[in-house]
């Protein structure tokens, strides 16, 4: 911590204790203090972020432009792609700037905004994944009524409700965290403004914010995961009743991508947030946080596109037409 404190002093000038209103900025410990590793990490995370932006915005545009994909399932997938782009953009660009400058600071107001945005996007993704599970249940278990049940109005309502829960969480958690008095230090043992490491900096009683964090996390996971488990229990029972092995495989393949995304996201976020702040393992927590804030948003478009037959076929057709267009000889005019 001494190395981090010295760097913080060099970046921000003062390390004096005080309450939140006296802190003009916070300092991040970051992923490493080794200056030789920072250029390597910058290149790595820049590449990951570039793939994330191209993959998610590309998949979003692809679904919007191609009328073939104007269905409830792809409507939810386009929202997930947009959400993953925003989710990753909350933390990664700031981290890249820190690698370049070597001064890992953020203003107090910037920390509030980063925390608020992070919470709303993270919580919204829980309920969007649950919505996608319910969509798969209706598609497989009630196929004849699929387009009646999953009407455009209901789809919009489900997405809006997901964002509403996210906004409610961010108001509760952000307000309870930043009303605390921060007097121990302004060095955040993380690479972005997250609530557990922020609570460790407070000299106020953090019992209420900790309970609120645990209660909100428990509610988000229990409600959304219940929807996921109930939906896929019905789906698996329906798949078992399919007589042919080929039919079982074809039906299950429509759910495999979503199950992979759910397992990755729920596993990492539950590890971080559904435990007391006193048990927050800083080194391990930062590594797991990298996985769900940086890696998963990059993997999701790959998971859904590479395992989706319709997407692959459409991409192949587009690439084939593009190659044919550029292979045509250029006409010559007299």
Biggest beta-sheet profile: 3 strands, mixed
Strand order of the largest sheet: 2-1-3
Number of helices: 11
* Cα radius of gyration in angstroms: 23 Å
How many β-strands, per DSSP?
3
Provide the helix percentage.
over 70%
Oligomer: single chain
Strand content: under 5%
**Terminal Cα separation, in Å?**
76 Å
Subcellular location: Cell membrane; Membrane
Keywords: Cell membrane, G-protein coupled receptor, Membrane, Olfaction, Receptor, Sensory transduction, Transducer, Transmembrane, Transmembrane helix
Function: Putative odorant or sperm cell receptor.
Transmembrane segments: 40-66, 73-92, 112-132, 144-165, 211-240, 252-274, 286-306
List strands and helices in order, with pairings.
Layout: H1 2-12, E1 25-28, H2 37-65, H3 72-101, E2 105-107, H4 108-141, H5 146-149, H6 152-178, E3 187-188, H7 195-199, H8 207-240, H9 245-273, H10 282-306, H11 309-327
Parallel strand pairs: 1-3
Antiparallel strand pairs: 1-2
How does this structure look, described?
The chain has 334 residues and is mainly α. It has one domain (2-307): Up-down Bundle (Rhopdopsin 7-helix transmembrane proteins), CATH 1.20.1070. Helix content is 74%, strand content 3%. The chain has a three-stranded mixed beta sheet with strand order 2-1-3. Helix 9 (245-273) packs antiparallel against helix 10. The longest helix has 34 residues, at 108-141. The chain starts with a helix and ends in a 7-residue tail after the last helix. Its main location: membrane. Residues 55-304 form the G-protein coupled receptors family 1 profile domain. Putative odorant or sperm cell receptor. The chain crosses the membrane at residues 40-66, 73-92, 112-132, 144-165, 211-240, 252-274, 286-306.
